[in-house]
Design brief:
- 33% of the residues are buried.
- The chain is of the alpha/beta class.
- It has 2 domains: 1-79 and 172-237, 3-Layer(aba) Sandwich (D-Maltodextrin-Binding Protein, domain 2); 81-165, Periplasmic binding protein-like II (D-Maltodextrin-Binding Protein, domain 2).
- The protein is elongated, with a radius of gyration of 20 Å.
- The chain is built from 6 helices and 10 strands, in the order H-E-H-E-H-E-E-E-E-E-H-E-H-E-E-H.
- A 5-stranded mixed beta sheet has the order 2-1-3-10-4.
Length: 260
C-alpha cells in the first residue's frame, strides 16, 4: 500500500464502480461523522481491487468476483441482468427473455463487460466496443443488442432504447471491499453504516472487521429506530431483525413468452 500523507489521513476515501450509487451511505456518514470528510473516488469496473491495494481508497464498492488475497469482502447484492434493445425491437413486446431467445441476435460484448459468460449467446459482432456506454450507442444504431447489469442499463439510459430481464443470464454481484490489514475505526464505521447499524448501537467498533459472514456479537440493547437509516443490505445480524436482504433472484410473477 502506498504512503498515507496527513491530508489523506484527514479524510475517508470511498471508491465505487459505474452503476453503484453510494449516496445513501454517504449521507449517513456525513450526519454521524461530520468532522471527517468523505471523498468519492469513481473507478472503472475493470480495475478490480487496485484502489484499495495501492491506497487510493480506504474502502470500495466493487463488482465481484475478484482476487480476495489480503482483502475483506462483504457481498451486498446481486443484480438482475437485462438485454438492451431498441424500443421497436420484438423483445420490447415481451416481459422477459432467456439466453436462448438471443440465439439469432448479434450480441455485443464490450471490453469492460462485468458478466462472467461461459459462452456468449447469439452471433458475435465484428468488433468489441471499448465500453458498455459505447455498446449501448451501438444498440441505438441497431448494430446489435447488449446484455448487462440493470444498473448499467439505467446509467446509460436513452429514450430510444429499453431493456428486458434475461432470466438465466450470468449476474453481477456488488461487494464492499477493503484491506484486512487496514481495518481502521473509520473503515469499521462505514461497514456498520452499510450493514444498517444504528448510531446508538451498543456494538463496539471493529466488530465488523473480520471476513465475510463471520459471526457477530449482538449488542444487549437495541438502538433507537431511525426512519432515515438505510436498511436494504445483506449481513445485518441483529437478533429479532426481520430486515435481511437477499440477492436479486429470478423475477417474481414472470410471464414466459415465446419469440415469434
Amino acid at each position: 500500500m502506498g504512503p498515507v500523507n496527513d491530508e489523506s489521513a484527514a479524510r475517508f476515501r470511498l471508491s465505487y464502480v459505474p452503476g453503484v450509487t453510494p449516496a445513501k451511505w454517504v449521507r449517513v456518514w456525513k450526519e454521524r461523522i461530520p468532522d471527517v470528510p468523505i471523498e468519492l473516488v469513481p473507478i472503472e469496473s475493470t480495475s478490480g481491487a487496485d484502489c484499495v491495494r495501492d491506497g487510493t481508497a480506504d474502502i470500495a464498492l466493487l463488482r465481484l468476483p475478484l482476487e480476495r488475497d489480503g482483502l475483506s469482502v462483504i457481498t451486498l447484492y446481486t443484480e438482475t441482468s437485462v438485454v438492451v434493445v431498441p424500443k421497436e425491437h420484438a423483445i420490447a413486446a415481451v416481459d422477459e427473455v432467456t439466453v436462448s431467445d438471443l440465439a439469432d441476435e448479434t450480441v455485443l460484448h464490450p471490453l469492460d463487460d462485468v458478466l462472467d459468460w461461459v459462452s456468449l449467446p447469439g452471433e458475435e459482432s465484428f468488433e468489441r466496443p471499448e465500453t458498455t456506454e459505447d455498446a449501448i450507442s451501438h444498440v441505438a444504431s441497431e448494430v446489435g443488442v447488449l446484455v448487462t447489469p440493470q444498473s448499467l442499463a439505467r446509467l446509460h439510459h436513452r429514450k430510444d432504447l429499453t431493456y428486458r430481464p434475461v432470466v438465466d443470464a450470468p449476474q453481477s454481484q456488488v461487494g464492499l471491499v477493503w484491506l484486512t490489514d487496514h481495518t481502521t475505526d473509520h473503515v469499521d464505521e462505514f461497514v456498520g453504516i452499510v450493514r444498517g447499524r444504528t448510531a446508538n448501537s451498543s456494538r463496539g467498533r471493529r466488530g465488523d472487521s473480520g471476513t465475510e459472514d463471520a459471526p457477530k456479537s449482538p449488542g444487549k440493547r437495541r438502538g433507537e429506530r431511525q426512519g432515515s437509516q438505510p436498511r436494504k443490505i445483506v449481513g445485518d445480524k441483529k437478533p429479532k431483525s426481520r430486515r435481511g436482504t437477499t440477492g436479486r433472484g429470478k423475477n417474481a410473477g414472470r410471464s414466459r413468452r415465446g419469440r415469434g
